[in-house]
Amino acid sequence: MLERFSLSRALIALDHQDEEEQRRQVAALVSGYLAMTLKDDMVLAVGQGRNVAAIADHVGSVAPKSCKFICGIGGTHRPGDAINADHISRRLAKKFGGSSETLYAPAYVENRALKEAFMQNGTIKETLDRRARPMWPWWASVI
């Protein structure tokens, strides 16, 4: 698998028939990996969804790290939705003792002109630029 997909590392959890238990096991594995790997001043792009949210919700003690969790995708859900990247970023920052940054843009727009207009916004552009730094491509490409 490492060779086929040109990976330097793969985290593999045991298969479980119960979907929620499987999600908890993967979250525990990733949470433990993050606890061992995170360093101060790292920038991590955070996705959305139940699996990523489970990492933030995983119970466990971790040493605080002064890192930044940035939304890897704009808003797609109603405010307060637990699987929204913004809420997950905030929960990960709280869990690991870092900070979070919101991407103030919708995830989807109706046309290219609207996309270009959002991309010209200084706040959105700055967040996307910080998110794009290759400080930890594993996080941005897998989670």
From TrEMBL:
Family designation: Belongs to the SorC transcriptional regulatory family.
Domain spans labelled Sugar-binding: 3-130
Name assigned to this protein: Transcriptional regulator, contains sigma factor-related N-terminal domain
Keyword flag rRNA-binding: no
Domain of life: Bacteria
GO molecular function, one term: carbohydrate binding
InterPro entries, alphabetized: NagB/RpiA_transferase-like, SorC_transcr_regulators, Sugar-bd_dom_put
Keyword Transcription annotated: yes
Keywords: DNA-binding, Transcription, Transcription regulation
